[in-house]
Design brief:
Length: 146
């Protein structure tokens, strides 16, 4: 195979993956807990803005991936109160009008904890303290931000 044919193949594959990822963000059937969504959650929960920017530079459609509870990068950025990440994700095309499995928009989960969907999954969620709304579901104290 020639070098140019290889490059054309890689570009075509990249476009196909971008289309699939773009569609995946909006279809409930594609809301899955995967290694990629776990990695994205880790990047956002840790507040690593540079790593998020680098990832989105390779493919802005990744701003719209969704995990099993319908949440994705924008929800997590709000949950962990990372306003700079919220702005980076919005600039990359994250859709603030989308809703999670509980019908909440990302901006409505500012440190409020897990979805009802996740609270009902004891295999992935151990405890939720209704009396402490100032903590996320990992027990970390949060401050309000807009």
């Amino acid at each position: 195979m020639s070098r140019s044919a290889f490059i054309v193949g890689v570009v075509a594959l990249s476009i196909l993956v971008a289309c699939v990822v773009a569609e995946a963000g909006t279809s409930r059937d594609s809301w899955l807990d995967t290694d990629f969504t776990t990695n994205m959650w880790s990047i956002i929960s840790s507040g690593n803005v540079e790593e998020l920017k680098n990832l989105l530079e390779s493919n802005q459609e990744l701003a719209n991936v969704r995990s099993g509870d319908g949440r994705g990068p924008l929800w997590w950025a709000y949950e962990y109160q990372h306003p700079e990440m919220v702005q980076v994700l919005l600039a990359a095309g994250a859709n603030p009008a989308e809703r999670d499995a509980d019908g909440k928009r990302a901006s409505e989960v500012n440190g409020v904890g897990p979805t009802e969907f996740m609270k009902n999954r004891q295999d992935t969620y151990d405890s939720y303290d209704e009396e402490s709304p100032a903590k996320n579901y990992h027990g970390e104290e949060l401050e309000d931000f807009e």
